[in-house]
Amino acid sequence: MKKRLLCAALFLSMLIFYAGETRAESFVDKILRITGISATTGQQRPSGDVKEGDIWIISLPDKLKRSLTSVGGYRSPVFSSGDKKILALQGEDIVQISVSGGTVSPLYSVKGIMKLVGFDRTDPQRLLFIAEDDDGRALVGLITMTDGRISYLPYDSRSRDDRRMISNLKGWGRTVGDKTIYVETETKSGMAGHIEWTDVKLKQGSKLPQNLSQCDGVACGQPSISHDGGLVVFIRQGR
Questions:
Q1: Residues 6+ apart with CB under 8 A from 29
Q2: In this predicted model, which residue has the larger pLDDT, 63 or 1?
Q3: I need a surface site. Which of 46, 69, 101, 139 has the fewest CB within 10 A?
Q4: 3-state secondary structure string, 183-235?
Q5: What residues have CB less than 8 Å from 103, skipping those under 6 apart?
Q6: Are 51 and 183 in contact (CB under 8 A)?
Q7: Which residues fall within 8 angstroms of residue 199, CB to CB, at 6 or more apart?
Q8: Whether the Cβ atoms of residue 23 and residue 16 lie closer than 8 Å to each other
Q9: Which pTM value belongs to this model?
Q10: 186 near 198, Cβ under 8 Å?
Q11: CA torsion, points 36, 50, 184, 112, in degrees to nearest 10?
């Protein structure tokens, strides 16, 4: 009798274990839940994309743009959950500035941090980022803005879907509602020869794409769109 009960308990434990394994959330599904970014959308970094520079912001209703910083050295800006502040990288520091401008405030440092992706849709205090380890392998992490606590999300580098998701997280194409922002390479020829740079573009519904940044020979990129779809922030490289 005891043997039968032991076997039944063992069988039940195995069922519970495998059921839990079946229900485990995949890396791709987790990122989709956190950000809304799928493994089948996104944009690769275009050649000549800006590496760092100053933070610029543009209002989409009136297309007015202005610089929030002037000293350079910033990259990968994103909007806070309430669209009142912008977070960006300066070296390995996460910094913050109001959308109306003002003082840039350092928040936290993260070793090897490469890009800010955006805030967790299910937890507005957690910010998704990409870093690199000492071997150049991509790390995907979440930092809690209230205390700086970091947790890394495991993924399978052998999985095609996981690799595609990492690639999309590194890209700059993003969509909010019917608005899609992306980076495109521009070229022109003049007396100085052939010039190539990048601009930030907007595609809204069935309308023709619009050049938002209009950087005309200066590399601009790394755009992010506000959660309400009314503002776009990007990086303009210094001359």
A1: none
A2: 63
A3: 101
A4: EEEEEEEECCEEEEEEEEEEEECCCCCEECCCCCCCCEEEEEECCCCCEEEEE
A5: 97
A6: no
A7: 183, 184, 186, 211, 212, 213, 214, 215, 220, 221
A8: no
A9: 0.85
A10: yes
A11: -30
Classify strands 231-236 and 54-59 as parallel, antiparallel or unpaired: antiparallel
Instruction: Tell me the mean pLDDT in the region 103-117.
Output: 97
Q: What is the pLDDT of residue 144?
A: 98
CATH for 25-236 (2.120.10, 3.30.40, 2.60.120, 3.30.70): 2.120.10
| Residues 32, 214: Cα–Cα separation, whole Å | 32
Which DSSP letter does residue 15 get?
Answer: H
In the sheet with 174-176, reading across from the earlier edge strand, the strands are: 174-176, 179-190, 193-204, 210-211
How far apart are the C-alpha atoms of 120 and 112, rounded to whole Å? 21
User: Which tokens in the block code for residue 230?
Assistant: 């009314």
The whole-angstrom separation of Cα 40 and Cα 161 is 9
What's the maximum distance between 2 C-alpha atoms anywhere in the chain? 94
176, 182, 167: which is closest to 221 by C-alpha?
Answer: 182
Question: What's the half-sphere exposure (Cβ side, CA atoms, 13 Å) at 137?
Answer: 11
| pLDDT score, position 20 | 47
Kindly report the number of other CB atoms within 10 A of residue 177's CB atom: 10
